[in-house]
Amino acid sequence: MQNILLPAILLSLCCLVCMILFFRGLWKVLRRTRWERKKQTRVFFRTLMLLAVWVLLLSVLSLRGFFADFSHLPPRPGLALLLPLPVALLAAFSKGGRELLSCVPPQWLIYLQSFRIVVEIVLWLAVLRGLLPVQMSFEGRNFDILSGLFAIPVGYYCFVKKAWPSWIVPVYNTGGLLLLLNIAVIAVLSMPTPQRIFFNEPANTLVGDFPFIFLPGLLVPLAYTLHIFSLRQWVIARYTERSISQPVKG
User: Fold this and answer.
1) Are 190 and 202 spatial neighbours (Cβ–Cβ below 8 Å)?
2) 35, 56, 98: which is closest to 235 by C-alpha?
3) Spatial contact of 44 and 27, defined as CB atoms under 8 Å apart
4) Which residues of the chain have pLDDT under 50?
5) Cα–Cα distance measured from residue 20 to residue 62, given in angstroms and rounded to the nearest whole number
6) What is the spatial distance between Cα 211 and Cα 21, in angstroms, rounded to a whole number?
7) pLDDT given at position 246
8) Contact of 188 with 75, CB cutoff 8 Å
9) Is residue 26 within 8 Å of 45, Cβ to Cβ?
10) CA of 40: how far to CAs of 22, 28, 233, in Å?
11) Is the peptide bond before 74 cis (omega within 30 degrees of 0)?
């Protein structure tokens, strides 16, 4: 019990801080839009309620052992990781999402990725305490800490100082998505399923327990949503610049 306490507390604090920063930023962005105040408030509270229901669902199901059952394919923690993806894509490519992204300071979407440093520390502590296999940490095959370490420099020098070329933004986001895919695949292949490839102990079962279900169910979706939003915003900005720079014919 003592072995699991520090990683659990650190992970819970990370989730709490991320959600506070996310909703604080969302409210600031909504206030920048031209939408009427009722619409701003409605979007904010609908997002808040949707996330609250998701967190509650993850908590209840994990406490009842739903995600700890690895007899089904795909593994149930993987479902928690993938289910928010359609919502993120819909938000990024909808008309309202485009309007919101036009009001988001682009460095914000990069800066928040620094939370992945804390996530990697949590995974490392879990490995040291014999709760996770070594390949799940930066001592093994997980290099996702690079996304967190580069977040502040990329956001600052690309968008604040504007000292770095803009192509670094899609490179950073694409690299971050690939690093997420890498650790997601490793995590699944370390679980006690027939598809398991990494047989060193312990098996990766911790992510099915509370509060560690928030790793695949909340923090990984937050990371890939930020990447999707940042890439979408970058594409919109390039398209807008190209349209403005083209001479008017006739």
Assistant:
1) no
2) 98
3) yes
4) 250
5) 23
6) 20
7) 65
8) yes
9) no
10) 15, 10, 20
11) yes
Residue 149 is encoded by which pair of tokens?
A: 């370490």
Residues belonging to the chain:
250
Q: What single-letter amino acid sits at 66?
A: F
Amino acid at 124: W
Instruction: At 46, list the tokens.
Output: 């609908």
Residue by residue, what is the 3-state secondary structure of the chain? CHHHHHHHHHHHHHHHHHHHHHHHHHHHHHHHCCCCHHHHHHHHHHHHHHHHHHHHHHHHHHHCCCCCCCCCCCCHHHHHHHCCHHHHHHHHHCHHHHHHHCCCCHHHHHHHHHHHHHHHHHHHHHHHCCCCCHHHCCCCCCCCHHHHHHHHHHHHHHHHCCCCCCCHHHHHHHHHHHHHHHHHHHHHHCCCCCCCCCCCCCCCCHHHCCCCCHHHHHHHHHHHHHHHHHHHHHHHHHHHHHHHHCCCCC
